[in-house]
Amino acid sequence: MATREPVTSELAAGRPSATPIFPWQHTAWQEIAQLRSKMPHALLLYGNQGIGKTVLAERLAQSFLCEQLQDQQQACGVCSSCTWFLQGNHPDFRCVRPEIMEPEPADTASKEIKIDQIRALSDFMNISTHRRGARVILLYPAEAMNVASANALLKSLEEPPPATLFLLVSHSLDQLLPTILSRCRKFALGMPSQAQALAWLQEQGVREAANWLAEQGGAPVSALQMAQLGKREDLDVWLQHLAAPSLETALRTADKLQKTPVPQLLAWMQRWLYDLLALRLAGSIRYYPRYQSQLQALAVRVDLAQLLILQKNCKDRSAIAEHPLAPKLFIEDMLLEYLAICR
After folding, report:
1. Dihedral sign of CA atoms 217, 322, 113, 93 in order
2. 219 neighbors 55 (Cβ within 8 angstroms)
3. Smallest Cα–Cα separation from 81: which of 63, 54, 99?
4. pLDDT tens, 50-93?
């Protein structure tokens, strides 16, 4: 079966995608549709990364602006409002995201949502809507706001303009200010079942769908993106070292992967450690079934107490992983600590 056009969970083309909601989101859509008559001014969609939350938020935004709603509050896709929305120039819609997510980000593009981006919404919210209809602001990921921008948004959430809907998308609620959380209606989006996710990936023509899905923690959209990129080289270099660690390969791996984003390497390490712990305690593997034999061999060797300490240290490292002072040294330190528990 031919693979579809790449699916993204972001507005990567600079305008909202036309991707329909995913099969595992129909129940969530119906539940949100029931809120339409009493829709809160701010809706916070949250759940695991890579399950299509932003696509769902896009379709919700489009439906709130649509002039010819269809069954179950679905946007028609053909009215003037839908046409503007899909072309990325609807006058009553704004999308707020970090500069790094723009189609052609500058070298200095920020990974945060800045206070100036929130302040820029003031003029948008203070003018009349184009056709006296709704006004929608989509903001994601919400945890990308720094303290200043979050406090600026809080003022709008406390005194929202009429007919204005804020749609926030978050991968991690614990990174949001409690005051932001308290002023939003929170709506959880769950993971699809493995059967649902695999069936969908196979419909997209993904080979080795089970492996891609496992490596992305069961998140099908992330699995499809990785499969479409077709790049597993860095991951395999990383996992091959973790499967057979030594001082020589630790240094060589750190040198080879020093330009790979450190948060990505850290996430791969955390998943590997999870599998080691799961094997020790429950005899199961979640993320890396391709390396089952190597993981089993290591699981009987590693000291359980040291493994738990390393897991905690990896979590602590995540606080500085986005901006390590020396990426190569950061990676070496992580791999050498791992080597120590494997000995």
Report:
1. negative
2. no
3. 63
4. 999 999 999 999 999 999 998 888 999 999 999 999 999 999 99
The pTM assigned to this predicted structure is 0.86
Nearest Cα to 163, choosing from 117, 125, 122, 123?
Answer: 125
- pLDDT of residue 18 exceeding 70, the answer is yes
Instruction: Give residues with Cβ within 8 angstroms of 110, minimum separation 6.
Output: 98, 99, 100
Please tell me the predicted confidence (pLDDT) of residue 106: 85
Peptide bond into 141 cis (omega under 30): yes
Tokens linked to 130: 């184009």
* Separation CA 255–CA 237 (nearest Å): 11
Answer yes or no: are the C-beta atoms of 95 and 58 closer than 8 Å. Answer: no
The residues that bridge with 138 in the sheet, in sequence order, are 95, 167
SS3 178: helix
